[in-house]
Design a protein that fits this description.
Blueprint: E1 5-10, H1 18-34, E2 36-41, H2 43-46, H3 53-69, E3 78-81, H4 87-95, H5 101-106, H6 108-116, H7 123-126, H8 128-137, E4 143-145, H9 151-167, E5 177-179, H10 213-221, H11 238-250, H12 253-264, H13 270-296, H14 299-328
Helix pairs in contact: 3-13, 4-8, 4-14, 8-9, 10-13, 11-13
This protein binds adenosine monophosphate.
Adenosine monophosphate (AMP) binds next to helix 1.
Length: 333
């Protein structure tokens, strides 16, 4: 059976934390079993924030290393860099003609950037949705796994595609549909007891896949809790619930029930719970961390994987561009 094509991108944000792992990486790994998955690192997209050249490369490399170490398998999917596919910027140029200023200015992500970085409202930010659309349609993908925050971009992609197909009277590009690969969208809590785990909240609030055991112990022992329950079976404050949520991810169910009982009869000692969580987290992350070190030291393997992924992605993209040039009347003499 021919597998359906899906495309997913990841921004080159460098080292990945537990939220990225359970919220994104694990899905990549599952999707490659079911779909003909194109997974790319969106390095062109990241230029909108003007990263330093050395940081950009280091972050791209790190994210690839970590995805591979977590089980993304280049034999089952196509893993590539956006910047290795020159047909993407070419199609982006063409599709800029199908995107109107008003709708680009109304995009929620653009408006948010205007507020958050008023000193750098560049044209790349404005046309970000066009580049995102092209990331998808370059492979003529019909299904895209997207979160709620990306729904608007996907609607815009459908609008651009419809305009192209209508203007040239073709049904060349499918209108890509959103789908949730994993219906249980997880949200991994931060160690500071507030909100989601996120790099922007600081190193100490995140558990990174590369954290060494001692760093993990320190971070977890410092996690926010409270002074403990005073009434049996009372509701848990968010910070305490967060610790239980993290424990459910990495500890055996008996350990979780043990501390649930202790909480419910008010005899819980958070220090003990954190110690148990830290040791289980170390057990969970050690093989991943070791694999990251192994993959990272194998420059030849990385070069090969990214080289092959780029070739496969370009093959598809070259066909798309050939067809599009034909459709729009650009012909070589
Ligand atoms: P970011 O680097 O924050 O853009 O995150 C990359 C991806 O990781 C997001 O699209 C989410 O799917 C996932 N992610 C990030 N933080 C969390 C979290 N705390 N819980 C669950 N998923 C997350």
């Amino acid at each position: 059976m021919v597998k359906e094509i899906t495309v997913s991108g990841v921004r080159p944000t460098g080292k990945q934390h537990l939220g990225n792992y359970f919220g994104a990486v694990v899905n990549f790994v599952k999707m490659q079993e079911v779909f003909n998955g194109y997974f790319f690192v969106a390095d062109y997209h990241s230029l909108t924030t003007h990263p330093k050249a050395a940081d950009l490369h280091a972050n791209v490399r790190q994210i690839i290393v970590e995805y591979l170490a977590c089980g993304v398998d280049p034999n089952k999917c196509t893993l590539y860099l956006q910047s290795d596919v020159p047909q993407i910027p070419e199609l982006y140029l063409i599709f800029n003609m199908f995107a109107y200023l008003g709708e680009l200015e109304r995009a929620a992500t653009f408006k948010e950037k205007v507020r958050s970085q008023p000193e750098n409202v560049n044209a790349g930010l404005l046309t970000y949705p066009v580049l995102m659309a092209v990331d998808i349609i370059i492979h003529r993908a019909a299904k895209v796994p997207v979160g709620k925050d990306q729904q608007q971009h996907l609607e815009m992609t459908r609008d651009f595609v419809t305009r192209f197909n209508n203007l040239y009277q073709v049904e060349y590009f499918p209108e890509p549909q959103a789908f949730n690969f994993d219906s249980n969208l997880v949200s991994i809590p931060s160690l500071d007891g507030e909100g989601k785990m996120s790099k922007s909240k600081g190193e100490q609030t995140c558990i990174y896949l590369t954290d060494e055991p001692e760093a993990l112990r320190k971070k977890i022992m410092r996690a926010t809790t409270d002074s403990g329950p005073t009434m049996p079976h009372s509701a848990k404050p968010i910070a305490v619930q967060n610790l239980f949520d993290l424990m459910k991810l990495v500890s055996p169910p008996e350990t979780v029930s043990f501390f649930e009982e202790k909480y419910n009869d008010c005899s819980i000692r958070y220090g003990d719970m954190k110690k148990a969580l830290a040791e289980d987290m170390i057990r969970f992350l050690t093989p991943i961390r070791e694999k990251i070190v192994e993959v990272s030291s194998n420059e030849k393997l990385l070069t090969e994987i990214i080289g092959d992924g780029g070739s496969k992605a370009r093959e598809n993209a070259t066909q798309t561009l050939k067809d599009v040039r034909e459709i729009i009347g650009i012909k070589s003499f």
